[in-house]
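Below is a filled-in request sheet from our internal design queue. Each sheet records the structural input a requester submitted and the sequence that came back. We keep these sheets so that new team members can see what a complete request looks like end to end.

REQUESTER: design group, bay 2
PRIORITY: normal
MODE: inverse folding
CHAIN LENGTH: 787
BACKBONE (tokenized):
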């Protein structure tokens, strides 16, 4: 048995409705279901979804106060006023800066940019920066990707005579900031048809309005910022990203191209994953560790040599960021496991001196995935007594609103329902933790703390083809509100399963249906499952389909997202190689080695003192029924001991080693002729010294010492003979007796049958036997032997 990491929520559709959608869209019903879940149900919607080039972006002047902003900027350009773009330090922020600054410079503006330092200034506008800007001669300041919540700073700007235009997309407060203009897709006075633009999307709309036409050559930057900020990839954002990816493939920004080269990324093949996993993390890395200016400079430069230099600096920062994230993640997990998994920790709020506030958001994301609850991770400065950090949430918990309800504890905060940043006194961390946990208890149910994995549908292996995957790829680019389809394949088998990768942390296998149909599969970060999946297991798998190209061959492939096995599993480790592999896998409290022989237990403990070895001598000895891995290490003297344990266990996995003391050689049963020959020798030469004649008997009859001693014990048991001081004498026998009447003979007969069954039965026979025992059905081996 293997439990799934997520709770699978398999989508369902009304059959009649889907038939109608399929007819409208002229597609198959499975594709109609996929489109319908993305709110594409008419031919017009489908055309817009698939063919962005046929449609123009929305009129930027539908955004409230856009006209005011354009008029003020054009006035500044004509008067040669100094314009400052005030940005943010993440990928959305630096692309916003680049898009707007390139536009202003194209219009001849005297413009520059400023990005606050994450560590010394925090997120968004601040009084000191605005004051310095005014004193340095700035006449007009334009925020991008920030400013909507900075009401006090905007009041200060008005006081010092600094004109400000705010462009933002973050959560707004009830009151709009005082500014020349506030451009926000959710502005209360806006008629804009799409509310989910990224910061760079808002900056692009302003650029469009200023130029009178779309600066389409900048759409690669818009695509990068949009994908990086995890906003909804629907409607206008989808159009921006589709068009932007084309620019990225064909005529990318010089700086982006330099960065992609260092990342060994082929831009002509770029997709949304190229942005999400290769480009955006690198652009984010600089601002996480220090000033973000190099990232903006990279996107603004027109000099290939400067681009190469800046790209190298940024790539090195990303490597450093990865190391720091790994270290903090390890420390955070240890802290949570030790202190914060009990009641009162429905929201995990953790912090430590020395943790870099710039990367804790990444750590928080990993912890949400691991613990399925909201997480806030803080870096603490013990000198100032301040804690800065980031939070990530689950769908049922609106993090921004939760922080807003606790704003008296916070020096500053901002963000979205699923992500936020904050600053507070370290003395208030406990109070924030308690308040958020109380709020979670009041508003969430137990089901809310289980990570949900939405599955499009259950499909048979036979339907997976290159053509089917090509149809799926028409849904790209994938992202928020348009997730990459995840499918379930139920009751399949995995074959050729092995660990791959330099550190052997990944899994490669073939998924096979009963019909024989098969597809390749890979599971990243799931290498530990290789040893937990038996060859006969019926597995349910969920994953994403793709086309794998290798050596000019194209094959369907599933990227495993999650899997589960709903039944116990048997592992045959009777071979030395499999047994050694199991021993090397280490031990946990859930893994118990059952030893019937004292020598076996002593040998195992001598080799690894950390193993959990249970000595079993009677059927009353107890092995915890909930033991996950139950390992039978040797051969019992009485198979009833093994059967008693199996019948009462709830183990997920049972391993059978059950090696005989003499390897896997079964003791032989002497024939009746052998008994007759020995009896004749005893009769002819009695009294007979067994010790003195043992070697001669072995040589003459080709017997073993064990066979001779066994036959002698049978004679003693049947009272055919007696032995005194090593000398055998025959007794007078009144009536003929069968060998089977001897308990010694019957014990060996039973032992041989038991060893034959346990050592040489095939896998299926062993599985059927244990299955019957666990279900309390059928005969035990003991009953079969007695029969």
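RETURNED SEQUENCE:
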């Amino acid at each position: 048995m293997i439990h799934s990491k997520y709770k699978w929520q398999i989508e369902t559709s009304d059959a009649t409705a889907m038939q109608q959608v399929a007819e409208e869209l002229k597609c198959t019903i499975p594709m109609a279901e996929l489109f319908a879940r993305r709110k594409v149900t008419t031919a017009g919607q489908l055309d817009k979804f698939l063919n962005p080039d046929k449609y123009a972006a929305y009129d930027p002047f539908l955004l409230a106060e856009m006209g005011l902003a354009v008029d003020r900027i054009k006035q500044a350009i004509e008067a040669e006023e100094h314009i400052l773009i005030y940005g943010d330090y993440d990928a959305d922020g630096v692309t916003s800066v680049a898009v707007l600054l390139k536009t202003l410079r194209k219009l001849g503006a005297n413009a520059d940019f400023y990005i606050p330092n994450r560590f010394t200034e925090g997120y968004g506008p601040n009084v000191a920066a605005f004051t310095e800007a005014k004193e340095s001669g700035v006449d007009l300041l334009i925020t991008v990707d920030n400013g909507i919540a900075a009401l006090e700073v905007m009041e200060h700007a008005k006081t010092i005579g600094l004109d400000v235009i705010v462009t933002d997309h973050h959560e707004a407060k009830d009151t709009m900031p005082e500014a020349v203009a506030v451009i926000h897709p959710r502005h209360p006075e806006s008629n804009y048809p799409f509310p989910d633009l990224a910061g760079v999307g808002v900056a692009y709309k302003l650029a469009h309005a200023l130029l009178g036409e779309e600066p389409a050559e900048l759409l690669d930057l818009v695509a990068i910022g949009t994908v990086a900020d995890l906003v909804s990839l629907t409607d206008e954002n989808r159009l921006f990203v589709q068009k932007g990816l084309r620019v990225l493939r064909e005529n990318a920004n010089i700086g982006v191209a330099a960065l992609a080269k260092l990342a060994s990324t082929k831009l002509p093949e770029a997709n949304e994953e190229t942005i999400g996993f290769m480009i955006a993390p690198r652009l984010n890395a600089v601002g996480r560790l220090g000033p973000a200016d190099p990232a903006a400079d990279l996107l603004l430069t027109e000099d290939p040599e400067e681009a190469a230099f800046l790209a190298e600096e940024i790539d090195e920062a990303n490597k450093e960021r990865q190391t720091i994230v790994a270290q903090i993640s390890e420390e955070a997990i240890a802290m949570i496991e030790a202190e914060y998994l009990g009641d009162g920790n429905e929201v995990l709020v953790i912090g430590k001196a020395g943790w870099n506030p710039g990367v804790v958001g990444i750590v928080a994301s990993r912890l949400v995935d691991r613990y399925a609850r909201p997480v806030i991770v803080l870096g603490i400065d013990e000198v100032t007594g301040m804690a800065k950090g980031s939070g990530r949430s689950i769908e049922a918990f609106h993090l921004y609103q939760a922080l807003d309800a606790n704003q008296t504890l916070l020096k500053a905060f901002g963000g979205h329902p699923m992500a936020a940043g904050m600053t507070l006194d370290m003395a208030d961390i406990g109070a924030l933790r308690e308040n958020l946990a109380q709020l979670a208890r009041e508003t969430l149910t137990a089901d809310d703390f289980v990570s949900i994995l939405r599955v499009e549908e259950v499909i048979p292996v036979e339907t997976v083809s290159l053509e089917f995957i090509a149809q799926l790829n028409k849904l790209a680019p994938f992202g928020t509100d348009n997730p990459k389809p995840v499918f379930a394949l139920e009751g399949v088998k995995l074959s050729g399963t092995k660990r791959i990768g330099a550190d052997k942390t990944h899994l490669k296998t073939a998924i096979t249906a009963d019909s024989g149909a098969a597809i390749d599969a890979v599971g990243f970060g799931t290498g530990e499952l290789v040893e937990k999946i038996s060859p006969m297991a019926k597995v349910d798998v969920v994953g994403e389909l793709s086309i794998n190209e290798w050596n000019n061959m194209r094959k369907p492939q599933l990227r495993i997202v999650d899997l589960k096995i709903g039944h116990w599993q048997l592992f045959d480790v009777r071979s030395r190689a499999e047994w050694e592999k199991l021993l090397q896998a280490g031990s946990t409290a859930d893994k118990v080695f059952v030893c019937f022989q004292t020598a076996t237990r002593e040998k195992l403990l001598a080799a690894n003192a950390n193993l959990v070895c249970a000595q079993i001598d009677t059927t009353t000895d107890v092995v915890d029924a909930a033991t996950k891995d139950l390992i039978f290490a040797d051969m019992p003297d009485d198979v009833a001991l093994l059967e008693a344990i199996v019948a009462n266990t709830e183990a997920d996995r049972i391993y059978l080693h059950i090696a005989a003391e003499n390897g896997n050689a079964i003791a032989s049963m002497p024939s009746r002729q052998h008994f007759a020959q020995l009896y004749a020798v005893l009769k002819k030469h009695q009294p007979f010294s067994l010790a003195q004649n043992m070697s001669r008997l072995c040589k003459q009859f080709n017997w073993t010492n064990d066979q001779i001693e066994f036959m002698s014990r049978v004679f003693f048991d049947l009272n055919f003979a007696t032995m005194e001081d090593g000398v055998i004498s025959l007794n007078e026998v009144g009536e003929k007796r069968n060998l089977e009447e001897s308990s010694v003979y019957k014990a060996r007969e039973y032992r041989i049958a038991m060893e034959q069954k346990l050592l040489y039965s095939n896998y299926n026979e062993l599985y059927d036997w244990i299955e019957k025992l666990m279900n309390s059905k059928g005969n035990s081996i003991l009953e079969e032997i007695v029969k």
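SHEET NOTES:
- The longest strand covers residues 487-500.
- The mean pLDDT is 91.
FILED BY: M.R.
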